[in-house]
Automatic annotation (TrEMBL):
The keyword Cell membrane does not apply. It comes from Candidatus Proximibacter danicus. This is MCE family protein. PANTHER family: INTERMEMBRANE PHOSPHOLIPID TRANSPORT SYSTEM BINDING PROTEIN MLAD, INTERMEMBRANE PHOSPHOLIPID TRANSPORT SYSTEM BINDING PROTEIN MLAD-RELATED. Residues 279-304 are annotated as: Disordered.
Length: 304
């Protein structure tokens, strides 16, 4: 019986010890790890921040949130946060504090950004609070925007695409068979044309084409020879034309003198014709004039 009491006492002591260790661990986890230097900052929104939240300095954990108090500032509610800094860090006067979320599954924390001033901030001083990007709020805003885009843009677009696809499907169902038939007939014609082209370029036709090309070469040579001969004939004809021009010029002068002589003869013939007409008129009027006519006077002797 005494031995059982000792066992119970040992088990109870072990349980109490483990409970104390657990409480100490929870105390350490929640950030209540001891008193340090207190600083204050103000935020308009402390979503996700609570007493015991982690405080970091350029990403390095330096303390925890000691107290959150709502205060009135210019007819608006702001939150005064006491920061318990228990690590030796240099917090200068122009440092800034913001609420940040390191990761998607991480809890929000207060991040202190180091300034450029050389003056250290005194204990209990105020670190200027700035609004930082809240990952959860950004994701919520993004989800809201995506939902709005889906409602106003994607759904009408998908509706239009569905209508167009239906229209295109019915049009293809209606027009595709005739188009396929036309394609088949076209392919058949192409095959027939290919066969004709193949027969056109058969070995026998190629030989004929080669012979024709040879004849064409010979004809070309003959044409070149004929062209040269025609050029020579052209030169000879040019010379003959020059000679004929000289002949025509000399002959023209002789023709001109002959024409003058012919004009004189024609004038005499015309005069003779007039005399004969006059004589025939007189004979018709007085036939006896042939009997009673005087012999012509010989004027030859007088001229002598």
């Amino acid at each position: 019986m005494k031995r059982d009491n000792i066992n119970y006492l040992a088990v109870g002591s072990f349980v109490l010890l483990m409970g104390a260790v657990l409480l100490y661990g929870l105390y350490r986890i929640t950030g209540h790890s001891g008193k340090g230097t207190l600083y204050v900052t103000h935020f308009a929104n402390v979503a996700g921040i609570k007493t015991g939240s982690v405080v970091t300095f350029e990403g390095y954990e330096v303390g925890n949130v000691a107290l959150i108090e709502p205060v009135a500032h210019e007819n608006r509610t702001r939150y005064r946060i006491s920061l318990n800094i228990n690590k030796p860090v240099r917090i200068v006067a122009d440092s800034r504090a913001l609420i940040a979320t390191p990761g998607l599954l991480s809890a929000p924390l207060v991040e202190i950004k180091e300034g450029e001033s050389r003056e250290l901030l005194a204990a209990g001083g105020e670190i200027r609070g700035i609004s930082g990007s809240n990952l959860m709020e950004s994701m919520a805003a993004l989800a809201s925007q995506l939902g709005e885009i889906t409602e106003t843009g994607l759904k009408p677009l998908l509706t239009q695409i569905s209508k167009r696809v239906d229209t295109l499907g019915s049009s293809m169902e209606k027009n595709l068979p005739p188009a396929m038939e036309d394609m088949r007939s076209t392919l058949a014609r192409i095959n027939n044309t290919a066969k004709r082209v193949e027969s056109l370029f058969s070995d026998e036709n190629l030989k004929r084409m080669q012979g024709t090309m040879g004849n064409a070469d010979e004809a070309s040579a003959s044409a070149l020879k004929l062209s040269r001969e025609l050029h020579a004939v052209t030169q000879e004809v040019s010379g003959l034309v020059k000679d004929s021009r000289g002949i025509v010029n000399s002959t023209g002068k002789e023709l001109e003198s002959s024409l003058r002589r012919a004009d004189a003869v024609l004038y005499q013939l015309e005069s003779t014709g007039r005399h004969l007409n006059e004589f025939s008129r007189q004979v018709r009027e007085n036939p006896s004039a042939l009997i009673n006519s005087r012999p012509p006077v010989d004027t030859a002797g007088d001229q002598k």
